[in-house]
Design brief:
The chain is mainly alpha-helical and 403 residues long. It has one domain. Helices cover 84% and strands 0% of the residues. It has 17 helices and no strands. Helix 12 runs parallel beside helix 15.
């Protein structure tokens, strides 16, 4: 597949979802600016825990959906029953996760209920979006995945215009409603684009998909995982400084997720013999974006937060470099996730879990010693380790395919 085809496939989804990402970035920035420092730190922790619980509840199903739905016709699977089964199965790990959160963190009951309901909605939403994505509806699927977070622009703008503070409990209620409305819209789109078929995702297949859970979970470690760990070790006011700076690295995550959603099914359908042009283009783009954030980010962050979080400006070069590494992981992640044998993926994830587990312990020590600087260093180390191991396994996989 040539560069023009990749550009044609990715341009519209990337533009629309970049717009949604900008709205999310602006909304969160305004909320961090308006919220008291302790509540801003709690909001960062809650959003990180929401993504982690949503991942745990998914049990790796979105990746399996890409494989199963992508290889079948639009009328092969009974998608409503698959979504119901997803919600029912997700309730078990999500409940266990929320109970664990209640033990580790001092969070009020309304926040715990938000994490329970919000993570279940997020699991079903993610699975449904990947059903659309598997059949080429890249724009809708990637846009819906970000629509609820983009809705944070509404309370952010209201707070900015009114010139007052906002209430964290009310903000969480608004976010729950946004997730529910987005899921309703998704179901309407699924009903128009897919036909209920005779097949269903079996329980054995769902359990086999847990290998993908390890992959995605490892991907959360350098970002949400480190934020969750820091939330247990640092005061909310301190965590807020890091979270405010991390907002400016979110475009890397957005770009990586969009490209992965598009590239995985494309590589499943169209195998390539060489990846040199894609690799060079991806790395060049990532490093250029990293340089831009490192140079322009401090002035932009100072202006956006009116100097409120200036003590965290030193983190931006580290966060930009970690973001570039996240973006360059798209290629091996997409190719291995879409076509590699399950046995190879299991070996890869065992190695990743071992190495990144050790780096996480080291990161926790850095956080206790260095505070917010330790968070940034730990996240960069985790992302670098993930890249090195993934590229090594991807290279070996391609050599075996060529032989």
């Amino acid at each position: 597949m040539g560069a023009r085809r990749w550009a044609g496939i990715t341009l519209a989804p990337f533009a629309l979802n970049a717009s949604a990402g900008v709205l999310t970035l602006v909304g969160i920035t305004l909320l961090f600016r308006a919220l008291p420092a302790d509540e801003a730190g709690r909001l960062a922790l809650i959003l990180a825990l929401l993504e982690i619980l949503g991942l745990v509840g998914s049990l790796g199903l979105p990746n399996l959906v890409t494989r199963l739905y992508g290889e079948a016709g639009r009328d092969a699977f009974d998608w409503p029953l698959d979504l119901v089964g997803t919600a029912a199965l997700a309730a078990i790990p999500v409940t266990i996760g929320v109970v664990t959160v209640s033990v580790i963190y001092d969070l009020p009951s309304n926040t715990l209920w938000f994490l329970m309901i919000g993570s279940l909605l997020l699991v079903v939403l993610n699975s449904g979006c990947f059903m659309l994505n598997a059949h080429g509806h890249y724009i809708w699927s990637s846009l819906l995945l970000r629509l609820s977070s983009a809705s944070l622009i509404v309370p952010g703008m209201l707070t900015f215009v009114a010139g007052g503070s906002t209430n964290l409990a009310g903000l969480l209620l608004f976010y729950t409603s946004a997730l529910a409305l987005t899921l309703l819209f998704l179901i309407v789109l699924l009903s128009r684009n897919l036909t209920r078929g005779p097949r269903r995702i079996a329980l054995s297949q769902r359990l086999e998909a847990t290998v993908f859970l390890a992959s995605t979970g490892i991907g959360l470690l350098p970002d949400q995982g480190i934020t969750a760990i820091a939330g247990a070790l640092l005061r909310p006011e301190t965590l807020a400084i890091y979270a405010a700076m991390a907002v400016f690295a979110r475009p890397f995550k957005l770009g990586a997720n969009i490209l992965t959603m598009i590239m995985t099914p494309e590589l499943v359908r169209r195998r390539r013999g060489r990846y040199l042009n894609l690799t060079v283009g991806l790395w060049s783009f990532a490093l250029l974006c990293s340089l831009g954030i490192a140079l322009l980010g401090p002035a932009l962050a100072h202006w956006a937060y009116a100097g409120r979080y200036d003590s965290g400006l030193v983190l931006l070069p580290l966060l930009a470099l970690a973001g570039a590494l996240q973006l360059t992981l798209v290629l091996p992640r997409s190719d291995l996730g879409g076509r590699a044998p399950i046995a190879l993926l299991r070996r890869l994830f065992v190695v990743l879990a071992g190495v990144l587990g050790l780096l996480t312990v080291l990161g926790a020590l850095l956080i206790t010693k260095l505070g917010i600087l330790g968070i940034a260093i730990a996240g960069l180390a985790l992302q670098a380790g993930r890249n090195l191991i993934s590229y090594a396994y991807w290279r070996d996989h391609r050599r075996r395919e060529a032989s």
